[in-house]
Each structure stands twice: as structure tokens, then as C-alpha cells.
Amino acid sequence: MDYTKDILNRLLDMYERREAFNQDASTLRAIQIEVKKAYPAYEDRYNHDAYKDINVAIEKLSSQNMVISEQNNSGKYEKVRLNVFMVEESYRSLKRISIPEQCEKVQHILGKYENAESLIIQNVIRTWTKLIADYKKLPYDLKYASKKIDDVLRVLIAITKLDKETYIRNFSTALFKDSKKFQKEFKSIIESILFDYTDEVLEKDKILEFYNLYENPTYVLIKGNVVMHFETSVIDVSEMPDGIALSNASLEKIKRIIVNADKVITVENLTTYHDADEDNSIHIYLGGYHNYSKQMLLEKIYSDNKSKAYFHMGDLDVYGFLILENLKEKTGIPFMPLMMDVKTLERFYKAGIYKDLTTTDKKVILEKKDTKLIAYTDVLVFMLDNNCKVEQESIKAVELME
Length: 402
Prior knowledge:
alpha/beta
């Protein structure tokens, strides 16, 4: 072990943990290590080499005026104190960058992105700039890593600009010329940042899809009496009992959609989609929050079939209602909730088919029920009063029990 470097690094670590760099050096209490605690071998009478090497290291640092230490009567050093008036020299000798210097680099990186168009980026920059101004480490384990911070912001900007379904490996290759780098080094960080800064309440493992970034192609499932016209062909979905699955790329090729039923029902859960057998309706499986391609499909359906009634069937939890409101807001379609009322929830509750609310569920309900979700106050109050939430897959289960 190089005791000279190790002693100095230990002292500088303590110096940084105490944020001594942001204080008047003359008022600092002693930053020191106890030799025998830091290096038990120093007290081992059979390990003369360690004793000698540690003494040599302390004497070298003392001669360079970087530390202050004195030997006791037996020739041992008990404590080694950092000379705070020589801190810059200590950093230079280790080729170590001080916290203020690291913060300065990070501030420069943040300044590059302060005029970003995305509100998310603006909010991230604002928060991180305040932290760095106070010499605080950035969250998401970024700390003061300026290169990593630069890459993360570059990734965030690229993601917020995606306007169509994009696959993660292609995205990674475009940014890093490496198809696996995003997943290996950035996916978890980016998911956490987007989860924290996105206004919509989303599940973290679905957050990238919300921004049009996917592991694999996704599909919309449609079943019922509907006819889709493409450039040179026509598909009559009513002839397919289980409906048809269309990739997002295929959705953009549809020219016209004719709904020969009275109701258009979007469904949040796949099992519910397969179970749905309501007459005179078409069913569309969205799989949680819709994306750009699905939004285009819904807008086209509504444009060609405005006289139909539009419903959404989602989970009876706070996220189900948030998804419904997001759907209405983004598409401009007057979707009404289907089987998302107190009567349905109470039916599940009495049958014992429900889950307890999580702490996060309760927090989101209390935050949203009097504002964005005020139309569903009665259902949300029932959830809170009875500590329950229900997934739409439970419908068939209740029917089997009754």
C-alpha cells in the first residue's frame, strides 16, 4: 500500500464530507485520523514493515507541510492532522480534483442546456444548478461526474424530442454508436429522472414508452365491427373473432376507419380486452398510456365516426383514472368511464377481490382527487375509506364467484 497517498486521501475525504471547502479554514476543527484505528498493522509488533512504511509516509507528508503530526515518547505517531492551509497542494499532489473544481465543471455542463425547449430539462437544470451552487452532490448517483451528467442531459433531450415509436437499440446506436450502451449505463437513471419530473403519474417501468422509446415493436389490438381502409386494401375486422393486432407503424398507414357499431371502447388491460364480449361495440387495447401512433389512430376513428359513443375501461385505481383523463386531454375525444364507478368497485370489494392501497396510491389520490380527478371523487373516497383498489381483470373472476 502507498501509505502517503492513502493517508492524504483519507484526510481529504473527511475534509469533503464536512464540506470544509465551503468554510473559513481558520475556524475549522481539526480534520485528523487516529493512526492505529486507520491502520491496525501499525500496532502489530510482528509487522515491522508496516510500522516503518507508515512512519515514513507521515514524515514525508509532514516535511511537505501537508499534514501536522508529532511522535510520542516511544516514537509512534498517534494522530495525523490535515493542514487545511495547504489543501490545494494536497489535491495537486494526488492529482485529485477538489469539490469546488468539480462543481465548476458541472456548472459549465448545465449552462450548455439551460435554454433547452423541454420543460422537463429546464426543471432538471434548475434543480441541479441550485444543488451545485451549494456544492451538493447531484442525485441518481451522478454526484459531480461532469461527463456522465453531460451524457444524461443529452439523452434526456433526445428522448423528449421523439415523436414516433423508436427502439432502444437504434436510439442507443444513434447517440453512442453502441446499441447496448443506453441499457447498460443510462436506462435506470433516465427512467428515474423522467419518473420524478413527468407531470403525468406513471409507473416507472412504463415511463420510456410514454416518451416513445420501446424495447420492441408494440401493437394495438382491435376487435369488433370495424372496417379499416388502407392505400390499396381493406380489412374487415368483424370477420376475425379475436380481432387484429397492428404495429404502430401500420397504424400510420390507415386512411379511413368505419365503425359499424354504436360504441368505441378503449381497454387498459389485455385480459379484459380478450374477455370483452359486449354486443354492438368495438374494443381497442391500448396497454396503459397511449403513445403518438395510438393517439393518431384514436383521432382518426373519432374524425370518421363522431356520432359514436366513446368509453374507456381501466383499472379501478387512481392510475386508471389518470390514464382516462390523459386519454381525453391528448385526443380531445369525450371518453366516458365504463365500469369504473362506485357500484362496480363495491361489487369487487364485497366479493373480496381487491388489493390494499399502497402509500403512494393514497398520496396520489389525496393530491389529485380535488383537482384533476374531481369528477371521480366518489370512487376515490370509496377507495380511501375501504383501503381498496381493483384491476379490471377481476370482472370475470367476480362473475365466476357469483
